[in-house]
Amino acid sequence: MFDLLTFPSFLLTLSILALSITLTKLVLVPYLKVRAYRKPNVSTFFFPLLGCFKSIQESIAKYGDAFGSTKKDAETSPDQKYWVSNVQADPLISLRGSQYIKDFLQKQHLYEKSKYIDILKLIAGTGLVVAEGNTWKLHRKIISNSFHYEFLKDNVPMVQDITRQFFDKLTSEDLANYAVIPKIQEITGEIVGTIFFGKHLNSYTFENQPLTLALADLVSELGNVSRDPLFLLFGSNIVKKPKLPKYKKLKDRIEGFRQIVYDMIQDRKAQKQKNHDLLDSLLATQASEDQENKYSDEDIVNEFVTFFIAGMDTTGHLIGMALFSLTQHPEYFKELEEEREQTYNLKERVSADNLQKMEVLHGFLKETLRLYSPAPTSFFKTSLQDHDLGDLKIKKGDLVVADFIFLFFNPKHFENPNMFCPERWKKGDLNLDPYAFTPFSAGPRNCIGQHLALIESKIIISEFLNRFDFQLRDQNYQLKMVLRFLYEPLDEVIFTLKPK
Question: Is the N or C terminus of the chain more exposed, i.e. has fewer CB atoms within 10 Å?
Answer without folding.
Answer: N
